[in-house]
Amino acid sequence: MADFTTAPDTPVRRKPRATQRGRQLEPAALADIEALLDGRPRARDSLIEHLHAIQDAWGHLALRHLRALAHWMNLPMATVYETATFYAHFDIVGDGEIPPPAVSIRVCDSLPCELAGARALHAALMADVDPADIRVVRAPCMGRCDSAPVVEVGHRHLGHATPAAVHTLLQGELHPKEVAWQRLDAYRAEGGYDLLQGVRSGKVSIEKLSSVLQDAGLRGLGGAGFPTFKKWAFVRAEPAPRYMVINADEGEPGTFKDRHYLEQAPHRFLEGALVSAHAVDAAALYIYLRDEYPGLHAVLREAIAEAEAAGLAAPGYIVLRRGAGAYICGEESALIESLEGKPGKPRHRPPFVAQKGLFDRPTLVNNVETVYWIPLLWQRGADWFASQGRHGRKGLRSFSVSGRVKTPGVHLAPAGITLQELVDEYCGGMADGHRLLAYLPGGASGGILPATKADIPLDFDTLQPEGCFIGSAAVVVISDHDDLRAVAKNLMAFFADESCGQCTPCRVGTEKMLGLLARDEWDTDQLQRLAQVMQDASICGLGQAAPNPVTSLLRFFPAELAKQGISLRPAAANTESAS
Amino acid sequence: MSTLASPLAPTAPAPNMQAFDITLDGVAVQALPGETLWQVAKRAGERIPHLCFKDAPGYRADGNCRACMVEIEGERTLAASCIRPAMPGMVVRSASSERVRSAREGVMELLLADQPARAESPDRSSHFWEMVDLMALDIDAPDAAHKQLPQRRAAPTLPDTSHTAMHVNLDACIECNLCVRACREVQVNDVIGLAHRGAGSKIVFDFDDPMGDSTCVACGECVQACPTGALMPARIVDEHGHGDSACADRKVDSVCPYCGVGCQLTYHVKNDKIVFVEGRNGPSNENRLCVKGRFGFDYPNHAARLTVPLIRREGVPKGIDPDFDPAKPLTHFRVASWDEALDLAAAGLRRLRDAHGPNALAGFGSAKCSNEEAWLFQKLVRTGFHSNHVDHCTRLCHASSVAALIECIGSGAVTASFMQAQQADVVILTGCNPTVNHPVAATYFKQAAKRGTKLIVLDPRGITMGAHAHRMVRFTPGSDVSLFNAMLNVIVTEHLYDEDYIAAHTEGFEALKAHVLAMTPEAMSPACGVAPDEIRDIARLYANAERAMIFWGMGISQHTHGTDNARCLISLALATGHIGRPGTGLHPLRGQNNVQGASDAGLIPMVFPDYQPVGDVQIRAAFEELWNTPPDTPLSDKPGLTVVEIVHAIHAGTIRGMYIQGENPAMSDPDLDHARGALARLEHLVVQDLFVTETAQFADVILPASAWAEKDGTVTNTNRQVQMGRAAVPLPGDARPDWWIIQEVARRLGLDWHYTHPREVFAEMKRGMHSLDHISWERLEAEESVTYPCPADDAPGMDVVFGDRFPTASGRARFRPTVPLPPDEPIDDAWPTVLITGRQLEHWHTGSMTRRASVLDALEPAAVATLAPGELDRLGLAPGAPLSIETRRGKITLTARTDPLMPEGMVFVPFCYVEAAANILTNPALDPYGKIPEFKYAACRLAAGDH
């Protein structure tokens, strides 16, 4: 080793810089940005909205435009770049790189779509198109799992996609398909917004409404299942100003119930959201809608405009924001970071977002479906809701069912229903020729249960003994035609893609776990140990739940794995057989 | 808002709250409110492994690496101890938990899997490997767990070596985010980000640009923070990318030799050479450094370093010879022994003194040397030359500020440290460019802004601090007095002044009030170029703040109306009562490492040490007693000449001989042709320096002196903090400490001096300077830094002064009304552009040190002038083209650099480049009170240059 006491030869640069340090601002790029963003706010929390505007206008983010945007917003370049590179929907084009073609085909590679042949579809499309005109990319769950496989061409989604159907679509309209939704008049005709008027006029007290929610047993339907009335109370106890945030970033693979409700009855959702905002006296109501639902963005924009025009919401009180392609933003603190214009990296608790959330103020964050139920519960009463349910459970659950069943879709069913009952009574049974092998009770994160466990009640709190959870009630049904290792790899690849990268166990753990799953010999001690580190030491639920598919396979399916040629070392003890 | 508590510090316990108990591994331990579990464990004697958490001031815990997990009873998952606050009754398991051990080791294994082997690591002694050792991981075992994991990279990736000073090897990066926090939150330079996501997460500079092409200002905070060596000082990484931060033989704690911030640092020394520098936790820097302090350390080893005394060869004319190479001085000088050189140096001075009287000699001391050396130098002039013709570079930087401060509040030093900005609601920064000239002080301003302090930047130029400012107000160059009087007018007419404060602590307000009445914003706006409403806004912001401070630099002082500028700022503070409390005050940012100390120690012609007037008979008597002056040569009662006056006096034939220590007037004085002409006229010139500077090229005798890192001594920074510097490396060749050389000259002038170490000089200083009461050499050795004034031997010094009374005869401060005056040399059709001069981030003062520091020289290798893109367009020049700048006094040609923050109609030239010396152009017109030249305004014209 060198002794380091003499100065190394420094690169000879006797000519001084002709400009200030770093990338220079191009006046023409700044003119572009000024024209595009004229009149829009320059505050940091608008960064993602502005990045969308640039991406929409030019089809990509050129570094010269990002440089100009940084200048225009008085943000450091690194800050803009961190955010722009975090989100999948931004295409950053470096110096000398060729911008992507005008049309992109995104092929959903989530598990339900993969089961339905997404890989072959992706390969066929790749072989078929001229990459100079069209690019074919993979994309995570598009929330249309009942019509798998799904592709998005431009901004238009296509279910049950085939190469032929894609080609037909390419000749036509690439804007989102129109959604037929319940307009304000229709909603008001059936008593819509009465509750909002009631709470605002004082006719309905928040205490009374809160007790209805308590009696009905309404819980957070994004997946965490936290009692809604309690969340209200926590946030109400914190000092003003407070904010209300709606988590419409439905991204758990296999989940599409929020899209379903928003498409049907956006005003019922808005009423529930406004009532909740009123309950915590929120200074503003932010709706964070995933960017995979561009059609819904238009619906909500119009519905909000209707509500504003009718005096139901003060103009500007409801702020509709677009996600940008990041599953982690479904985690409430990551969502708040994203609303602030930052990469969606979850925050540490404590403090909880109820204490310190959006802009560091106390914030009520609720899922779309949770607030959607509030006007209904008020109308029909707590007993109506609580009296439903099976096997000792109370209430209704919106199951997003996909995979190997005859009629996938959103099925509103009693809480506590078993998988077998759900498939038989609501989904028309298994798809022809398929025998139930396994099922995911709660999307990618909720673990995998064997057919032998098709008789346990599905609800919050019932699956913990199995190392699983129901989460957003995204049920993916797997049959004897399916490859369990491929299932596990699909799920782990999803987590590795969507890990925010903040903490070691998740950032590195998902990557390493994926590598280990590709091996022919599985070292169960090693997998279990890694799973334990991820579960114990990850900052948020993504990393903590990411090993669930693997631990489920090791626990319930050793025989199946063996059949697929995977040797387990050492032979797994204490496992329960799948057959 | 009040910003007493730092939200960046995870540590700060809430005051006045009770300590409580938690259970740690079965044992009850005490926790303080606000403490994290990591900190509680540390106090209990356990070092929990940590990677992303840096246990240092200013570093927020981020809790991302997950190496410090603990188990908390009742919680489903483990918790990161670095970020989890302790709560009463918590039951925590750390060392006793198998689950915890497994998680911590699992995390390390995940990171180790992709880490270069220790021997091939960019830093084999990194914090990361220290943690591997702490956890006793057997990483060399063939079946070590991390070796069973898939690896991310098949082959090493190429390191980023684009930066001269720093080496980037992201193969060793663990994405812990410490460099991002270092860059964004600690230094607030905002260059580094953590881009992308998941396993693709990547540390980036700007838009993932090579570090050397980015906006990086090379403060090196990231290098100091990096726990793996992914970011390393380039100097301690070999050609294979392998390095070792523990390569030094020894470490020596000292103080930075550059600006007045006074950062404490540690020299890492190997084979008697400095190999790298780290920031130390001093009160004014909290481990931070800038590019100069961290990377500009090798100038003492430069090939041109003087190691022997030199005597001018006979017949060689004095002057700047373009063919002269300072590294090969024997063309013009010959080597001499110390005895010969000292004898010749002293004999020449003695001869002139004896033949022409005391007024024939003058001395320039140095603000770059120690307090003790400054004291000895002025003592030599006063008792050996028998005059007060001693001055130093303070004349060229803050003489006007000091004149105004002494006149109005009775003291020339700052009333509050710059750290007080963090407690202010409003901070005015005017005529200063702290990110360039006081980079570490700037970090405090930027942090304050992040926490809600409103910065108001008042400057003709746009400056990078503007990005952090609440208001960035650009005004017409030279119109400071108009702008400030308009602000005073608003404060008076809108009754925004603090009547109680004015009544209790000031005099002369009624006169000021009457004086400013006519100077309304409307009346002043045309002169200063700021809209009346904007003037009102900033006046209200400042006056209505609960706590507000004013910082200024040489944009204020270096004008013919520099003293008036400072008087206005003082009036603003006095009228609003923004002085004497935490978060309030007046702070002229001092330029050189010891300009405060050198001034305090008496390198000023009108005053003895501690600003005691030479005309005061009692004070003279006291110094005569202290210095034991013979009755036939009493101390002179006449104020001496100042820097520029001395130059004039040489031309006038009065001053015939000079002793110049560590100053470079042949570069730093205005109107260089005139100043250099004076130096050439001297009959005898003794120069004491590290190099044959431009000034030394006029010398008869050159005495090889000591660099800062080669000697012991104290220095006083801009915050009035007296700090201890220590010799880190030996003197090269026959070079000697400055204090020794001064003493040898003094002896040869007949003075009976017998100092054997600077500590003896310091002891003498304490007898003549009350400012050093309760500050002893021993105390400084133990505490490193003590602020003066200091009330007791065991009490800290006063960060904020004049809360009760001012050090004036009446105890009150005085308002001094001012009248706007035009610049001495206004622009006109023939000379249409304003020239201002100053410094660059990398180069300091005349460049004698920094241009010989390899890193700094590589970063800024040649002379540039900065101007607005529009100005260049008008000249039809491209960025990087040669540009000539001409004033009535001369012309230089240098490279044009665009800066969008520059206003049109102005050009900025740093004065450190001998090949295009800015001071050839500058106007020597003086401020009548401070005798400071107008470096910040000269009329010039620009044209394409011919290189």
Fold topology:
The complex is a heterodimer of chains A (579) and B (947).
Chain A: H1 27-37, H2 47-58, E1 61-62, H3 63-73, H4 77-86, E2 92-93, E3 103-108, H5 111-115, H6 118-128, E4 134-139, E5 151-153, E6 156-158, H7 163-170, H8 184-189, H9 194-201, H10 206-216, H11 228-236, E7 242-248, H12 257-264, H13 266-279, E8 282-289, H14 294-309, E9 318-322, H15 332-339, E10 363-367, H16 368-380, H17 382-386, E11 396-403, E12 409-414, H18 419-426, E13 436-440, E14 449-450, E15 474-479, H19 484-498, H20 504-517, E16 521-523, H21 524-537, H22 541-545, H23 548-556, H24 558-563, E17 567-569
Helix pairs in contact in A: 1-3, 2-3, 3-4, 9-13, 10-11, 13-16, 19-20, 20-21, 21-23
Chain B: E1 20-24, E2 27-31, H1 37-43, E3 69-72, E4 79-80, E5 91-93, H2 98-112, H3 127-134, E6 166-168, H4 178-186, E7 192-195, E8 202-205, H5 221-225, E9 231-233, E10 250-255, E11 264-270, E12 273-279, H6 291-295, E13 310-312, E14 333-335, H7 338-356, E15 361-364, H8 371-385, E16 390-391, H9 394-397, H10 399-409, E17 426-430, H11 434-437, H12 439-450, E18 454-458, E19 471-473, H13 480-493, H14 499-505, E20 506-507, H15 509-516, H16 521-528, H17 532-544, E21 548-552, H18 554-557, H19 562-576, E22 585-588, H20 595-600, E23 607-608, E24 612-613, H21 617-627, H22 643-651, E25 657-661, H23 665-668, H24 672-681, E26 684-689, E27 701-704, E28 713-716, E29 721-725, H25 738-748, H26 758-768, H27 777-783, E30 785-787, E31 813-814, E32 833-838, H28 854-859, E33 864-867, H29 869-875, E34 882-887, E35 890-898, E36 906-910, E37 923-926, E38 933-934, E39 938-944
Parallel strand pairs in B: 1-5, 15-16, 15-25, 17-18, 17-21, 18-19, 20-31, 21-22, 25-26, 26-27, 32-36, 33-35
Antiparallel strand pairs in B: 1-2, 3-4, 3-5, 6-9, 7-8, 10-11, 11-12, 13-14, 13-27, 23-24, 28-29, 29-30, 32-39, 33-36, 34-35, 34-39, 37-38
